[in-house]
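Before the break, one more example. Copy the sequence into your notebook; we will annotate it together after we see the structure.
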Amino acid sequence: MTRPAARSRDSESTGRPVDPYAWYAGLIAAWVGAWLVHDHTAVARWPPAATVGYWTAAKLLVWILPLVPIVRSRTAAPVLEYVGLRRGRDAPAPRGPRSSCTS
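Here is what the structure looks like once it is written out:
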């Protein structure tokens, strides 16, 4: 008997489950690639300020940039539902005026 794969919001858009171990392995491989580029090219001989720029760009591309779509996909729906811009799946339709202010 096989266990069904866990579903997440990421898997709802693509139709297949997201494997966190594959994602993590890809991040590690990208970081090792950044080190290999640094060690086997002229980057290692750049001035210190340029080397700092290289590592800053590498960290942004490898670690920060991939998190942007993950954070957006995981937080967008609950935030929009909370502020009333989108109804949840089981939420009833709103009735009457949405503002509590009186004119």
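The two ends are 63 Å apart (CA to CA). The helical segments are 9-14, 20-40, 48-64, 67-82. Try to locate both features in your own notes.
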